[in-house]
Amino acid sequence: MAAALEEGLRSVSPELFPEGMSARVRYVSRPGWEPGSEDRYRDQLSALFAAQESQGGRRETPGGPLRDDLAIDVDGRDVLKLGSAGQVRSLLTAAVLAEMRRLEAIKDRCPVLVLDDVDADLDEGRYGALLAGLGGGAQVFAATSKPGLAVGRWSAGKRFHVSAGVVAEA
User: Structure pTM?
Assistant: First the structure.
């Protein structure tokens, strides 16, 4: 999945995620795992669980696949930890677009995309690049407080207005 995400990030529009071509995605195992080190990995997991103290009758998983993560580097920097808010938003949006394309290739149909508070995450140019990257086959539900953001982007789209809990076609 890390390799598929890296390939997807490299394929998205530079207007959406300019750093995409230099993105590197790594799977980070906690504790560290390498092929051929299954016994060491199992011993480290056992030690983590044995050292864990119960807190109020509850225990959390201290290691293993639930604690694994992805690191996404651009120019040698971990974007999720050291990137600007705009870089992280662009990265996450590019990752969503890459995953939609991957699923479309596997399933031969587009999944539904729900974007909440679009104007907080993307500026108009990046939002336009996202819509252009989706193509005409995707179903997109996008919520925004700026009604002009989607005007003219998709002529086939419908706009709705929500006021006092009532949804009406705009």
Answer: 0.73
